[in-house]
Every structure is written in structure tokens, then in C-alpha cells.
Write a structure and sequence with these properties.
By secondary structure, the protein is α/β, with parallel strands linked by helices. The chain folds into 2 domains: about 200 residues, Alpha-Beta Complex (DHBP synthase), CATH 3.90.870.10; about 90 residues, Rossmann fold, CATH 3.40.50. About 30% of the residues lie in helices and about 20% in strands. The chain contains 11 helices and 16 strands. Strands 2, 3, 4, 5, 6, 7, 8, 10, 11 and 12 form a 10-stranded mixed β-sheet that branches. A 4-stranded parallel β-sheet has the order 13-16-14-15, with helices on both faces. β10 and β11 form a beta hairpin. α10 runs parallel beside α11. The N and C termini lie far apart (about 40 Å). The structure holds threonylcarbamoyladenylate and magnesium ion. Magnesium ion binds next to loops.
């Protein structure tokens, strides 16, 4: 059996052995294991080198499973679930006792979502447990949006990657929790705040505390390539001041003509935020393999998914 394959039965076999697999979703690939297997959960944390204070997301196939996982669920959560699931929205809810403290990093809340990916959903329907899955990258690295990215990171540690093709959204789920039933944004992601607010009204944005993060996805350094990254509003100035370096460039929709730029990736010639988000991590993976001295990226407009893209770029550049 090849390690990258589309056969769900292989995935099931490995999950039933308390082991973990590469798991496709519409956002990014996950590193998935049975939420009730301590061995699988330990392996997820250890191969990802993820600190134990950073909790995992529980993946379901149906909203009917929610009451077994979470309790005291606000009405607004059901409204959001109805509108966005299956899809790239994660909800933070009060946990049921059955959810281990390892998954929630000792919080009394649990993160849940239903992914919108046919292979992921059909796998989840065929197994008698939900899957815990963080993004399938080592702590702080760029998230994987293709099976080959997962292979590159974890070929020595996992036996199987379920190949669901390139991720449709290409950026992680948006995370929403509730404070006194009011929605709170814990992480920008593939659903824009504008779209959430159409359903839920005004959303407040949590401010992070680095030493005891309420939302560890808001940790400052995150999503980083190995190559130095600069995010700028003034591409020409930054190219000029680095013209002796081997430069890789990522822009939203413009082509930049400059002899100093060795390789350039335009994320969406049509100026489409969704297409840009879909291509963002693949662009970082590609440029990171090219032995460049520096990657320069353009800052996006602070609206719609431009906000989520900027969020990732700013953390990646730390
Ligand atoms: O799109 C996604 O959400 C992907 C796919 C695989 O589903 N998963 C993902 O997982 O991005 P991960 O572990 O890389 O990021 C999950 C984020 C972390 O920042 C974690 O801190 C936050 O969710 N989180 C999980 N449980 C939480 C909780 N109870 N309270 C606050 N934040 C939580
Ligand atoms: Mg992650």
C-alpha cells in the first residue's frame, strides 16, 4: 500500500489500531486520530511537537453528534452550525465529560466542526468515533493544503495519508466561541467575519495573552516558512533594499517586473480573495523549497478573507 492513497478502508484500519493518519479537509490537511484513544491523541501531540496547552478540534459528520460532545449549547451556535456546516467554521462549546482533558488542554470547552470534504465525511460516517485533528504540520510551520505537503513533514511518523486532492479553501477554519452567548472570534479563517456577522450579528475579537493564550491559534509566531518572510505595503521599496538577495515574491493579483525577483507567484489574477486564500500556503511551500534568501509578500486589503490572509502572513513573518 502506498502511503498516499484514496482508499478509506486503509484509513479505517489504521485508526482502529489507535494510530493517526493524514486526513483531507476543505481547509487544510489534518493529523487525525480517534478522540477516545489516548494513544492516538498522545501521538498527535508528540509528532507535531505541539505544546500540551494547545487544544485539538473534534471533527464530526453530523450535527446530531453534537450533544454527546458539548452541553449548554447557545442557540446562536445552532444558527451558525445550520448556516455554515459542513464547512470551515469551528465552534468553541462547553465540553461534555466524555471529552478528555488532553483534547481540550484542560479547558472546559471543546472545539468542534463538520468538515465539508466528501472523503472526510464518508470516513467519519464509517467509524464509530469522531476524529481529533490539528493541522498536519509541525508546530509553527506552514499548514499543508495537499497530501504531498503532509508527506514531506510526516513520512517517517505516519503510515497513511488519505488523499483528498488540493484543499478547496486552503486556509484554516474560522473559530468562534461565545461569552455570555455573544459570539467571539478566536481565529480568523476561511469564513470571513462579514459572513459570520450576517448570521450572528456583531462579533467581538479576542485579544490574546501570549503566556496563557485563550486562543492559542492567535500565538504570534505561527504558520512560518523556513525562509525569511517580509510582509509589506510597499513591495518596490522592499525589493530595492534587498536587491542583492535571492528574492521570492507573492502578490495578490499584480505582476511585478523586477530583475531582482527570482520567482514570483500571483495568488489570484482575478483579484479574488477565495482563490488567493486557496493558493497561499501552497505558494509558501513552493517558495520555501527554492533556497531563496527572502520571500516578500504584499499585504492584503483588510476586508473579507484579506483579513484572514494578513493574519497568517503577519504571524508567518515573525
Ligand atoms: O481548518 C481547521 O480548523 C483545521 C482542519 C484540520 O480542521 N484544523 C486546525 O487545527 O487548524 P489546529 O489544531 O491547527 O488549530 C486549532 C486551533 C488552535 O489554535 C487551538 O488553540 C484552537 O483551535 N482551539 C482548540 N480548542 C480550543 C478551545 N477549547 N478553546 C480555544 N481555542 C481552541
Ligand atoms: Mg495549525
Amino acid at each position: 500500500m502506498s502511503i498516499i492513497n484514496t482508499d478509506i478502508n486503509n484509513a479505517i484500519e489504521i485508526l482502529l489500531q489507535d494510530d493517526v493518519i493524514g486526513f483531507p479537509t476543505e481547509t487544510v490537511y489534518g493529523l487525525a486520530g480517534n478522540i477516545f484513544s489516548e494513544k492516538a491523541i498522545d501521538k498527535i501531540y508528540s509528532i507535531k511537537k505541539r505544546p500540551s496547552f494547545n487544544p485539538l478540534i473534534v471533527h464530526l459528520h453530523s450535527v446530531q453528534q453534537l450533544s454527546a460532545i458539548a452541553k449548554n449549547i447557545p442557540e446562536m451556535a445552532f444558527d451558525l452550525a445550520k448556516y455554515f456546516w459542513p464547512g470551515p467554521l469551528t465552534l468553541i462549546l462547553e465540553k461534555q465529560d466524555i471529552i478528555s482533558n488532553k483534547i481540550t488542554a484542560n479547558k472546559n470547552t471543546v472545539a468542534v466542526r463538520i468538515p465539508n470534504h466528501p472523503l472526510a465525511l464518508s470516513l467519519l460516517q464509517k467509524i464509530p468515533f469522531p476524529l481529533a485533528a490539528p493541522s498536519a504540520n509541525p508546530f509553527k510551520s506552514v499548514s499543508p493544503t495537499a497530501a504531498k505537503h503532509v508527506y514531506h513533514y510526516f513520512k517517517d511518523e505516519i503510515k497513511y495519508i488519505l488523499d483528498g486532492g488540493d484543499c478547496e479553501n486552503g486556509i484554516e477554519s474560522t473559530i468562534i466561541g461565545f461569552k455570555n452567548e455573544i459570539p467571539v472570534l478566536y481565529r480568523h479563517g476561511a469564513v470571513s467575519i462579514e459572513s459570520i456577522e450576517k448570521v450572528a450579528g456583531k462579533v467581538s475579537i479576542i485579544t490574546n495573552n501570549e503566556t496563557n493564550p485563550d486562543a492559542p491559534g492567535m500565538l504570534l509566531k505561527h504558520y512560518s516558512p523556513r525562509t525569511k518572510l517580509i510582509v509589506t505595503d510597499n513591495i518596490f521599496e522592499v525589493i530595492e533594499s534587498n536587491h542583492h538577495q535571492k528574492i521570492g515574491l507573492i502578490t495578490f493579483y499584480k505582476e511585478i517586473i523586477s530583475p531582482s525577483v527570482k520567482h514570483q507567484i500571483i495568488l489570484s489574477e482575478n483579484k479574488d480573495f477565495e482563490e488567493a486564500a486557496r493558493n497561499l500556503y501552497a505558494a509558501l511551500h513552493e517558495l520555501d523549497k527554492m533556497n531563496l534568501d527572502i520571500i516578500i509578500t504584499e499585504r492584503f486589503p483588510e476586508e473579507n478573507l484579506g483579513r484572514s490572509i494578513n493574519d497568517r502572513l503577519i504571524r508567518a513573518a515573525c
